[in-house]
């Protein structure tokens, strides 16, 4: 049984966040959960009859009608993506409360959820940009404190040729690379814990072999055991989120392609480049979905639609097509 204090919303939010912490979310994600839960709870307390301070709001007061009103107020000055994220957080919160037998049911299905547009792909701009980036990374510059081109090329090549997310890159182990010659593959721990296998073609295989060989020369064979992190920093320590982002940013800078990297994409632009090139070369949505680890075909389909739009723009820009417009005479009515 829960007493009155145990059923205060602020207390239950903390219990939910503690339970979620066992899944090892990033600090950014955990902060977003807290922000979404607290923001809507504050509005619900203000809209209650009579209005209540937040720390007096009990979970029993959260009727479908009050939650709908709070979300309507919450959505007034926020983007659909933000409202959708908050809806998912509250849905998870109530599912937790049902499982803990704090409430009898989840009211969130009665609360409207906005349909946010799928984010558009942001690949590197320029036909030869990926190749230029790799070629630049392969050259050790005198300005670098401790150049390690084999490692830099390996990081970029895995992102560009396997389309991995940042978290997936960091989770790779030396033993993630497996299979016989000609049938090599990366075992990837994907979003939501979904595993997938990504083929490794001979070029990428050679890059990774060269990187691991250079790593053995630097730090010894003990650093390339199967359970060792695949990607490490210049001290041989596992690469972390900030270090990986800085590495990729510095590669962009050295290659002089800052103006070809979409704003807000950065490392993710490499994954989007992989997917966009798949679509340009004729891959279907189902193939793209499997290779990128998407949860639904809809996300993969956006790459095909964007590619089709780019092809249409290219055709429209053709000078011969433009010249034809002036040759067509209007028909007499």
Automatic annotation (TrEMBL):
Q: Does the keyword DNA-binding apply?
A: yes
One Gene Ontology term from the biological process aspect of the record: DNA integration
Q: Name one GO molecular function term.
A: DNA binding
Q: Which UniProt keywords apply?
A: DNA integration, DNA recombination, DNA-binding
Domain named Core-binding (CB): which ranges? 7-98
User: Domain Tyr recombinase spans what residues?
Assistant: 119-316
This chain belongs to the protein called Site-specific recombinase XerD
